[in-house]
Amino acid sequence: MKLTTFLLAAQVIGLAQALHFYFDSSEKRCFVEELPSDTVVEGKYGALVWDDGKQSWEADPGLQVRVNVEDLSSAQVVVNTKGPHTGTFTFSSHEAADHQICLSTEGVGSGHKHVKMYLDVNVGPSKHDKESDQRHIGTLAGKLNELNKKVADIQREQRYMREVEEQFRDLSEATNARAVWYCIAQIVVLVAAGVWQMRHLKVYFEDKKLR
User: Fold this and answer.
1) pTM to 2 decimals?
2) Does 18-127 carry CATH code 2.60.120.680?
């Protein structure tokens, strides 16, 4: 029993950094929170009861906490739950309005007892707009398709440039080959002309000697 009480108290101590307030077990404490539309709210609470014998705040396993949340603009009850002395509650605001959060206790035995309540309310981001998300996804898909088309155009242009480059390289190689053969032909002609001139001069000088 002592271990159970210790664990229950430890759960409440985990909320030590949260807002805490005091009230009698017969009372109900309420707070007003102004919320924007489509907003998720998560609350954590923990309650301790004053023990006159121990002169300290103790966790009572039999204590129950009722949480009531009401949209003041429409008088609609958003949350109405009863749970153990520590727990959580979650709700979403449908419209921008003031929301009243009330906490009360039950099951504390006979007579009035003093209650120390910890409350931590976290207002989260707005809920996702599915239609907006779908439009955003559609926009991204359209941009992605445009990007794919541009990439395809760039690839097609690169292939064309490679083909032009290959044609230019083939033409350059053919031109270089012709130039080489032209040089070889010139060399052959020059050698043949030199041989012919030498033979012609030889015959000419031989004729001169004979005379």
Assistant:
1) 0.52
2) yes
